[in-house]
Inverse folding.
């Protein structure tokens, strides 16, 4: 389980961003989490709460936006949903994916800061 | 209480990514080609690497870093093939990150190396999130662990460049279905190149040596060294 390491990196990043903005209390952290990021949502939720204890982020909320898997289909010549995580081919025409275009995200997108 | 929403855009692993990028540049400048290995515990990373190092060392200067939760057994085994081996003991951490790699390289002159290998901790989940600055990532899958591993761990197969099916000498005894394994790999990672090897009999090892040697010569042309 590496979600604790991920949570610690998140906290570091959030504190850095909040300091830049005057160090006000962060009430919530918004995260984009790709289904193909290698990070488990439940484990991250749990780890985040744990990792926040004793920091300025204690009690803050983690708001996760799940990002679905999109691939590039060379036959349709466009982005398409993948058939599944186990089948990286076009959901329309079944052509194998040329690349992954979305679903590997692991990024902080917004902070809710006390006004 | 009032709150305001402030937009930020920050990759959670920004620090690791930055460090990995710096390492990659350093490897490029020094002319060393860096390959990492990931697999589930016991798929045969150390055994494969020991044999690979032995073969490559005939004509190249080789070194290895090996991650392990607690022991230095793997480093001791690899030391039979090259004197340049360092252990990274990760303690409770189930993956290597770029910082650990950088620390472990301290004092080594990368200019004196042609190939560097990094054996990750045996784990098919956690290493997928961490770029180590390597040129090439190999994912190993042994003939004794089931054909559907790629379907269970599609993410790691997508962060790897090449798949190596190991312990092929055991395939028959384990009733390993090679075609099914290849299908699983292609399903989660279309177009992925696959090698079949046995570290025990040596089967397929020359192909891997030739492959890495040619990769190195195109990634590190002699003229810039
Ligand atoms: N028959 C056979 N056994 C092998 C082969 N490669 C590895 N083994 C055996 O598989 C076991 C595990 O091999 P290791 O090389 O230690 O595997 P590993 O992936 O480095 O293991 P961890 O570092 O603990 O994750 C050992 O008992 C090896 O002797 C092979 O090609 N054929
Ligand atoms: Mg090992
Ligand atoms: Zn299509």
């Amino acid at each position: 389980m590496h979600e604790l390491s991920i949570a610690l990196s998140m906290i570091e990043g959030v504190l850095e961003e909040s300091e830049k903005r005057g160090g006000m209390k962060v009430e919530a952290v918004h995260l984009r989490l790709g289904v193909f990021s290698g990070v488990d949502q439940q484990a991250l939720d749990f780890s985040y709460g744990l990792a926040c204890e004793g920091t300025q982020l204690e009690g803050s909320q983690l708001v996760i936006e799940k990002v679905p898997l999109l691939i590039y289909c060379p036959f349709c010549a466009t982005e398409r949903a993948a058939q599944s995580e186990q089948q990286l081919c076009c959901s329309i025409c079944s052509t194998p994916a040329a690349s992954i275009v979305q679903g590997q995200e692991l990024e902080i997108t917004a902070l809710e800061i006390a006004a | 209480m009032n709150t305001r929403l402030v937009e930020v855009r920050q990759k959670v692993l920004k620090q690791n990514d930055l460090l990995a990028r710096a390492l990659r540049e350093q490897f490029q400048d020094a002319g060393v080609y860096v390959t990492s290995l990931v697999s589930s515990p016991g798929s045969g990373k150390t055994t494969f690497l020991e044999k690979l190092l032995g073969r490559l060392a005939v004509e190249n200067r080789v070194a290895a870093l090996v991650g392990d939760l607690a022991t230095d057994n793997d480093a001791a085994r690899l030391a039979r093939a090259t004197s340049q081996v360092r252990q990274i003991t990760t303690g409770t951490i189930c993956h290597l990150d770029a910082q650990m790699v950088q620390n472990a390289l301290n004092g080594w002159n990368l200019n004196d190396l042609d190939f560097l290998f990094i054996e990750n901790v045996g784990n098919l989940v956690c290493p997928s999130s961490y770029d180590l600055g390597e040129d090439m990532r190999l994912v190993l899958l042994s003939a004794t662990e089931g054909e559907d591993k790629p379907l269970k761990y599609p993410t790691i197969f997508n962060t790897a460049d090449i798949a190596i099916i190991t312990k092929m000498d055991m395939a028959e005894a384990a009733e390993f279905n090679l075609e099914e394994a290849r299908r699983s790999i292609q399903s989660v990672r279309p177009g992925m190149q696959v090698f079949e090897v046995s570290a025990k009999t040596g089967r397929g090892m020359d192909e891997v040596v030739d492959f890495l040697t040619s990769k190195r010569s195109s990634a590190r042309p002699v003229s810039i060294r």
Observations:
- The first helix of chain B runs from residue 14 to 30.
- The domain at 2-216 of chain B is CATH 3.40.50.300 (Rossmann fold).
